[in-house]
Amino acid sequence: MSTPQPLADTWFTRDLPVLRAIARLIDEPPHGSAPYLGAVVPASGLPKPQVVSAANALVTAGYAQALTNHAGEIVRFTAISAEARRLAGLWPTPQGEWERLLEQLEARATGAMTEVERGRWRAMADAATALGPDDGALLMSALIGGYVPRQR
Predict the structure, then answer these.
(1) What are phi and psi of 141, to 5 degrees?
(2) Is 79 helix (H, G, I), strand (E, B) or coil?
(3) Do 30 and 78 have their domain in common?
(4) Number of domains in the chain
């Protein structure tokens, strides 16, 4: 007996590009916030059979909501979930915002006009780097969510 091989990954090559296309189109007024499958095909850059497969997977997983015809085929997308918005890049993620903060600190340190200013930005960049990505993402999660700790 042979060991069954795992299925090929479809997230990065098929599903995510279709999710991003749906997300872009849902946020564009010309589509009335409910794009047809026919608009998603060219926006994704994939052939229609792959878009149909991805769309079915995304709806089944709860990332997208769709209208279907009598045969059960997806005709139009009506909404995407909050997680889909994050995965598509429409909403921030704690990890992404932490990376943006580190990039901004580096840019400010590099572009500072004086040595004093450069030293301050460098110190802040070093402290943020020392904090690490895990604690940094927790901090960004609190900031994105609007959590402000109470003073004692």
Answers:
(1) -60, -45
(2) strand
(3) yes
(4) 2
